[in-house]
Design a protein that fits this description.
This protein has about 400 residues and is an alpha/beta fold. The protein is built from 14 helices and 13 strands. The protein starts with 16 loop residues before the first helix and ends with a helix.
């Protein structure tokens, strides 16, 4: 490979949140192991992005900055090339992160006391951003089939969407944590339900570049003019290129009235721009990062296969949810342990730190979410530690 995906980087002294959490209370990580929890990568960044930021600091002043014409061209070009999605520059707003944008969207398109519909188990900040904005969480649980694949219960989704108190659906696609990439047919059904119910849609598509072989991502808003007119789409280079700390998202709203309401919420929070280096990093990633992403996807698929093969051979009572998108593997330990706290304690005692399934809602109890974006050697060193946990559970 052209790029380095094998160097182990110790981030203990870098301010990394997940490394700090793993090492709190005097704990330590085993040699050569990383935290498999929070979804940022344990790889070196694309050198093209690093070089662009260094060049900027050498030649520019990182003062108050707004996107340049070159930036807009990079973002719209990426959407066109990678997602067959024509996005007008005026439809894009840069916001300091997708979770921040979710809060703004909830404030813009709903009122306190309204219900917001989500499909669970789902990314934990969805719950927080709804409740902390004084809205009511309405859950439509995904259905887990015999082959370990999650499906949408469309009858349940429709019934809940038709509740007059439900005003908004937040969709996660690719879905975090279960790894589904919803098909165009599924998205059309979701869209039709939302249109019939008169719901706004916030579509969190932050992982839309991280699609496993044999699967294809469809941008919800690109399906029809009607959906484009009701949807706020959340995108960012952060997951794709390991730039979460840049705090930048590109939020797309084509409907002018919706966009005006969203901008009004941003204005009340006095959010006017993102940081100067974030624009540089995003532009460099979208202009020069395609080859790096191509190799990254090969490494992620290899790591997925290592975990699946090991679990199939050594831990047959654990089920691996098929990974279609994201770099987050959803592991079902329920046949050996349904107590999420006990499972968490044993993992930690054996030097493994993942995101516990219960964090993603009641339906996640007994699951673990494992971050795969790290050197393959780290994955191989981690699997015997997981086997040790498994053996303790089946005694």
């Amino acid at each position: 490979m052209q790029y380095d995906f094998e160097t182990y980087i110790d981030r203990r002294e870098c301010g990394s949140i997940k490394w700090k959490l793993a090492c709190k209370n005097g704990r330590s990580l085993p040699e050569g192991i990383v935290p498999f929890s929070i979804a940022d990568m344990e790889f070196k960044n694309p050198p093209e992005v690093t070089a662009a930021m260094k060049d900027y600091l050498d030649h520019c002043i990182p003062g108050y900055t707004e996107p340049t014409e070159a930036y807009w061209k990079s973002v719209t070009g990426w959407m066109r090339r990678h997602h067959h999605w024509e996005v007008e520059q005026e439809a894009i707003m840069t916001v300091p992160g997708v979770v921040c944008a979710l809060g703004f969207g909830i404030q813009a398109f709903t009122q306190p006391g309204d219900k917001v519909l989500i499909m669970t188990p789902v990314y934990m900040p969805f719950y927080e951003v709804i409740s902390k904005n004084n809205r009511v969480i309405e859950e439509s649980p995904l259905t887990l089939t015999e082959d370990g694949r999650y499906q949408i219960d469309f009858e349940d989704l429709r019934r809940r969407a038709m509740d007059p108190m439900v005003k908004l659906l937040i969709l996660c696609n690719p879905h975090n944590p279960v790894g589904r990439v919803f098909t165009r047919e599924e998205l059309e059904k979701i869209g039709q339900i939302c249109l019939e119910a008169g719901l706004y849609i916030i579509s969190d598509e932050i992982h839309f570049d991280l699609i496993m072989p044999g699967h294809e991502h469809t941008v919800l808003a690109a399906i029809s003019d009607a959906l484009n007119d009701r949807t706020m789409t959340c995108t960012s280079p952060s997951k794709t290129f390991n730039l979460a700390g840049m705090q930048l998202s590109n939020i797309v709203i084509h409907n002018r009235a919706m966009r005006k309401r969203f901008r009004e919420v941003m204005a009340r929070q006095n959010i006017k721009s993102c940081n100067a280096l974030s624009y540089v990093a995003c532009q460099a990633a979208y202009d020069d990062g395609e080859k790096w992403l191509e190799e990254l996807l090969q490494v992620l698929d290899k790591n997925r296969q290592i975990v699946e093969d090991y679990i199939d051979s050594e831990m047959p009572l654990v089920k691996v949810t098929p990974l279609e998108g994201t770099y987050l593997l959803w592991l079902d330990f329920r046949r050996v342990c349904r107590d999420g706290r006990r499972l968490e304690a044993l993992m930690n005692e054996n030097g493994l730190f993942m995101d516990e399934g219960y964090l993603f809602g009641r339906a996640g109890e007994g699951f673990e979410r494992m971050m795969l974006a790290c050197p393959s050697g780290v994955i191989r060193r981690a699997m015997p530690l997981m086997k040790r946990v498994y053996d303790q559970l089946i005694k």
